[in-house]
Design brief:
Shape: globular
Number of domains: 2
Number of helices: 10
Number of strands: 14
Strand content: 25-35%
Distance between the termini: 48 Å
CATH architecture of the largest domain: 2-Layer Sandwich
Helix content: 25-40%
Structural class: alpha+beta
CATH class of the largest domain: Alpha Beta
Order of helices and strands: HHEEEHEEHEHEHHEHEHEHEEEE
Bound molecules: 1,6-di-O-phosphono-beta-D-fructofuranose, manganese (II) ion
Largest sheet: 8 strands, mixed
Amino acid sequence: MADKVVFADRMLSLGLARVSEAAAVASADLVGRGDEKAADQAAVNAMRDQLNLLEIQGTVVIGEGERDEAPMLYIGEEVGTGEGPAVDIALDPLEGTTLTAKDMPNALTVIAMAPRGTLLHAPDVYMEKLAIGPGYPTDVVSLDMSPKERVEALAKAKGCETKDITVCVLERPRHEAMIEGIRSTGAAIRLITDGDVAGVIHCAEAEITGIDMYMGRGGAPEGVLAASALKCMGGQMWGQLTFRNDDERGRAAKAGITDLDRIYSRDEMVTADVIFAATGVTDGSIVSGIKREPGWLTTETLLMRSKTGSVRRMIYRNPVATT
Ligand SMILES: O=P(O)(O)OC[C@H]1O[C@](O)(COP(=O)(O)O)[C@@H](O)[C@@H]1O
Ligand SMILES: [Mn+2]
């Protein structure tokens, strides 16, 4: 049975890198041009074309939205050649559409793949997120703690003062009280305007990025992608879906979620081995953005497998058609 084909993550991961690379290359001409929609569309088209070349029976579980609102890469769309392992795919062809349009840091193309039925089918609602890097005891911090308590607990576990902790937070009015709570400890806050997948990943490389903890409310789809990345790099993450109305609760029900209050750990969002690829669109602290020179585009891709914890950074110099 085709369904029984093993998830050959070692080879598949290389194909996955081409998918995120292609999306980044396609959006290159739209960096800094003020047109979010066009940039997103270019990335979506390229990602889908490349994905369909992979020898997989893929189902998009985290995608561009419901079928009626997303003509491509919609949730439930079948992708791949139809041969090969049955897999779940989570993707965000352009994570940071506004960052791309404004040429601000940390826009990425992102995709994760895992055996069928092992990625949380998160609906397009918000998720309350909390993440820290590797090396801490399990549950040193939790979503049940106040922001202040989280900073204090992490500082204690790290053996430093609270003022030596840096927390990354999306700059949104909904986070005002949280920011106040964090500031009351003396901790530093790295405010970002968008891009919480990168925000969470920062925690896994605290020595490079200077970020110890991520917290706050952002997209649930981005939460599953971030959990996939942390599962490869190490680090802990928790997420709780939040709903603003019955329509959003309905979306969760449609996605098969029955316990609306559940707090998911990283491994409950991603229950088996996963592979993850992200390519830089604009410069960031995780990967460099697209570099343009006449006739060439260069991208950097972060490619990881949770089975081995392997992390590759791949530079791709790509000839572009000149007119
Ligand atoms: O802008 P909102 O509604 O606060 O949503 C936050 C979400 O939007 C983003 O900043 C940007 O996502 P997109 O570029 O894919 O739209 C995510 O990183 C984040 O999870
Ligand atoms: Mn996004």
